């Protein structure tokens, strides 16, 4: 096991609910050894674990420990057991394998196939402008094939989104979390409440940006709900952004939002996407099979290819002109500096497997930090951002030092860039600034310590500097550690 994973195993503590605490290194059912936290969501947290009773050299499994929503509704456990049993019967190359459903004291968990690779959510974030249809199509097709198989088995996913799709190292597509959202729906229905009842203070297993209008209205689950989500995911792959900028479907419908046609998408494929994204079930693509038929049509006459080549040439020319005649953006400057400082090729470069583990660890810590920031749990956010031994900052910096290929170095630099921008959230929080300007300034300086080019943090620093004063600033270690990249008087150091 590599150095970072050893550190995570001995020091990372994971709390799951008020009545249960699990830590990396704990053992469930005297069988499953929790090795590393892989991520978390509304349904619980996922660990990499070793199955002591599994045959073969690779005994890795993924364990999803279900969250408080299940313990608060004990009747959901019997429904969840039934769903897990159904999932075990599914046998499809694009669906993650489910091995068993079990509990150990207060901990209820599902044991699943462990996969090496990355979530589709992570893939999309790395391709901010989207990918070409040729590259996106195998992913879209794998997702649609999984949904087609599930719907034939009378199973509705109900929470299909990029975070529930996995792209393996072998470029296989795997859909996760089958039927869990519907299980919670049925449980809450027993209490006479609808899924989106504002009085229900529970993370009910849905992601609003991918839920259809009918799901918000409490309609019976239908395969066309998954088609709407599939349309959103396909659009994100092709454009790098959500079709309705993450607005809830009813809100997008009321505002009459219409997504722009992604670059490079032909008219027929665009029409297929629009059909899947319909706000109305009656006019939405009726099935995953129909979606596959509409999306798998040829792009059109060869002259379309010629125009695409001309357009691409003009685009490249435009980019070159922009680089020649305009200065680099702050983000470009930061990325360029990181790449220059970490040329790669060192003798201690990590293996591909170690780099993948580091990347996953960085992504998990970043996601945990985002969740903590959303809840304004500043201490917890600081732990996952920069204080903890497996923090996002530690992981991305380690990736920069150990990566050898230009692609991995750039990915780590982009991770640090995204990380630095998160520090603006607490630094701008009105409640924190009204209560403690020094603490808000500390957050801004911590982000600027990582990325002194960040314009939002620079502006915040200027504002708070006026309020706090130079003497107090000098006592803040993160502020003193900023290595300013410009002599601009508005952003000069303390």
Fill in the keyword field for this structure.
494 residues; alpha+beta; Phosphorylase Kinase, domain 1; Transferase(Phosphotransferase), domain 1; 52% helix; globular
Oligomeric state: single chain
Radius of gyration: 24 Å
How far apart lie the N and C ends?
Answer: 43 Å
Unreliable parts: 1-20, 181-204, 298-326, 489-494
Helix fraction?
40-55%
* Number of DSSP E strands: 11
Query: Please, what is the CATH homologous superfamily of the largest domain?
Result: Transferase(Phosphotransferase) domain 1
**The CATH architecture of the largest domain:** Orthogonal Bundle
**Number of helix segments?**
23
Describe the main β-sheet briefly: 6 strands, antiparallel
Q: Would you give the CATH topology of the largest domain?
A: Transferase(Phosphotransferase), domain 1
Which CATH first-tier class of the largest domain would you pick? Answer: Mainly Alpha
Strand content: 5-15%
Looking across the biggest beta sheet, what order are the strands in?
3-4-5-6-8-7
Mean pLDDT: 78
Shape descriptor reads: globular
Number of domains: 4
Q: What is the element layout, followed by pairings?
A:
Layout: H1 3-11, E1 13-15, E2 21-23, E3 27-28, E4 32-41, E5 44-51, E6 60-66, H2 68-71, H3 75-89, E7 98-104, E8 107-113, E9 117-119, H4 120-126, H5 133-152, E10 165-168, E11 173-175, H6 180-190, H7 213-216, H8 223-239, H9 249-254, H10 267-276, H11 288-295, H12 302-325, H13 330-341, H14 352-374, H15 378-387, H16 392-402, H17 406-422, H18 424-428, H19 430-435, H20 437-450, H21 455-468, H22 470-473, H23 477-480
Antiparallel strand pairs: 1-2, 3-4, 4-5, 5-6, 6-8, 7-8, 9-10, 10-11
Helix pairs in contact: 3-6, 5-8, 5-11, 8-10, 13-17, 14-15, 14-16, 14-17, 16-17, 17-20, 20-21
């Amino acid at each position: 096991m590599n150095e970072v994973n050893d550190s995570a195993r001995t020091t990372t503590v994971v709390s799951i609910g008020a009545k249960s605490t699990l830590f990396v290194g704990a053992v469930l059912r005297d069988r499953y050894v929790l090795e590393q936290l892989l991520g978390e969501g509304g349904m619980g947290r996922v660990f990499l674990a070793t199955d002591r009773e599994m045959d073969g050299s690779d005994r890795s499994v993924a364990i999803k420990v279900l969250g408080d929503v299940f313990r608060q509704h004990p009747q959901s456990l019997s429904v969840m057991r039934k769903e897990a049993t159904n999932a075990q019967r599914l046998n499809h190359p694009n669906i993650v394998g489910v091995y068993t459903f079990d509990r150990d004291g207060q901990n209820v968990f599902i044991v699943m196939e462990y996969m090496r690779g990355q979530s589709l959510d992570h893939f999309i974030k790395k391709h901010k402008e989207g990918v070409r249809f040729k590259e996106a199509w195998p992913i879209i097709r794998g997702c649609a094939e999984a949904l087609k198989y599930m719907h034939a088995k009378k199973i509705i996913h109900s929470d299909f989104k990029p975070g529930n799709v996995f792209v393996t190292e072998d470029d296989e597509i795997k859909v996760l979390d089958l039927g869990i959202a519907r299980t919670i729906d049925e449980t809450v229905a027993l209490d006479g409440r609808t899924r989106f009842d504002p009085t229900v203070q529970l993370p009910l297993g849905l992601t609003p940006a991918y839920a259809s209008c009918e799901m918000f209205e409490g309609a019976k689950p239908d395969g066309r709900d998954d088609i709407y989500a599939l349309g959103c995911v396909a659009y994100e792959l092709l454009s790098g952004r959500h079709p309705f900028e993450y607005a809830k479907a009813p809100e997008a419908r009321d505002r009459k939002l219409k997504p722009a046609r992604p670059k490079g998408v032909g008219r027929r494929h665009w029409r297929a996407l629009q059909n899947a994204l319909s706000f109305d079930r009656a006019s939405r693509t009726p099935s995953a099979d129909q979606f596959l038929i509409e999306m798998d049509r040829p792009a059109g006459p060869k002259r379309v290819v010629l125009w695409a080549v001309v357009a691409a040439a003009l685009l490249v020319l435009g980019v070159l002109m922009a680089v020649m005649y305009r200065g680099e953006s702050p983000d470009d400057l930061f990325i360029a500096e990181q790449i220059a400082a970490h040329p790669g090729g060192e003798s201690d470069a990590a293996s591909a497997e170690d780099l993948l583990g580091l990347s996953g660890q960085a992504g998990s810590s970043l996601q945990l930090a985002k969740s903590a920031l959303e809840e304004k749990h500043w201490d917890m956010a600081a732990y996952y951002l920069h204080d903890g031994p497996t923090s996002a900052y530690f992981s991305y910096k380690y990736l920069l030092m150990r990566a050898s290929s230009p692609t991995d170095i750039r990915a780590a630099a982009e991770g640090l860039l995204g990380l630095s921008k998160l520090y603006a959230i607490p630094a701008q929080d009105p409640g924190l600034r009204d209560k403690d300007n020094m603490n808000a300034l500390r957050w801004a300086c911590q982000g600027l310590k990582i990325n002194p080019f960040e314009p939002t943090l620079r502006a915040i620093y200027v504002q708070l500097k006026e309020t706090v004063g130079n003497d107090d600033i000098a006592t803040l270690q993160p502020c003193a550690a900023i290595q300013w990249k410009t002599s601009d008087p508005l952003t000069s150091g303390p």
